[in-house]
Please model this.
Amino acid sequence: MWKNIVSTFLTLAIVLLIAVAGAVAWAKAQYQGPGPARVAQCVQVPRGASLTAVSKRLQEQGAISNAYIFRAGADRAGKSRELKFGSYLVPAQSSMEEIVSAITSGGPSTCGTEVIYRVGVRADSVVLRDINPETGVYEERVKYDPATEEAPAAILDAEEQVDARLRIAVAEGVTSWQVVEGLKRADFLSGDVSEVPAEGTLAPDSYDVAKGASRSELLDQMEARQTRILDAAWEARPFGLPYENPEEALIMASIVEKETGVPDERATVASVFVNRLEQGMRLETDPTVIYGVTEGKGVLERGLRRSELDRKTDWNTYQIDGLPKTPIANPGRAAIEAALNPADTEYVFFVADGSGGHQFSRTLEEHNAAVARWREIEAQQGAANGSGG
Model:
């Protein structure tokens, strides 16, 4: 009799263990497998919210299939008490494990409302964007020019939202003066700027900021990032470039940045100026002349005059040998890397080709023919000025 009881007990225990193991395996598959959401979703974690409240909300919006498994998985991973306030964009079919990782890692909000202050070469703009919950893609709702227009109510309201993402986006090729002037107009920042940072030392990039962030500290962040980019590119440079120090490479990068907006051309444009330096030729590039006229304070809204081309300044490379005194803009990472990794060419001339790019030449004869072709295109287009070096 006792033998039968023990046997039955063991059988039941084995069945129970198998059932538990199966349930655990099923729960693990549910936690790590693809989620039920068919489109990207904006997951909100309110300030002070509990994991229980967040998991219920996720189940209600269809981001997860089971709130209990979600909480159990987060607890097992040791993350149940690590919720970070914010808004998080999770891709379609994100697993519970991936969502837990997103909402406990923190960082800037990645969905919902965002206000972007764009510092541009020709103009600044402020854009309000919202995530489209159906597509998971940001869509522009409001845009205005802070230099000439008052901030719309929608922008002001968005800046006050505690979970709104605020960003400063600095375009490649802006001057340090333009960056400072732009930050002065960004109302959600605070503090004064005592002086304009040295030209070229600010990294064009996108910067997440909190409301009330210090302008001077943001500039320090831009300088630190540019220093890291330049130092890394300098350390990886090939042997034999005609630069005595990283600062000279930065000057060259700024010229490359201003001479072409075509990514595939940067290294070739850099090669032209490197070849000119090595052959003792003057750089003769219009953007350096323009900087000598404006000193980086705005855009020259006309063509260069002969008197300006003939006037000697510390930047006019038609009149001085070698590199100009300072950079002429803040170059982006790609331009810095091009200046320190120029293409291997024999080109010493280039001129616009009418397609947005340039025609490169090895000899003056080739260059003159390319210039003649550009003049024909220019005449056909009714354009007033060419572009080239």
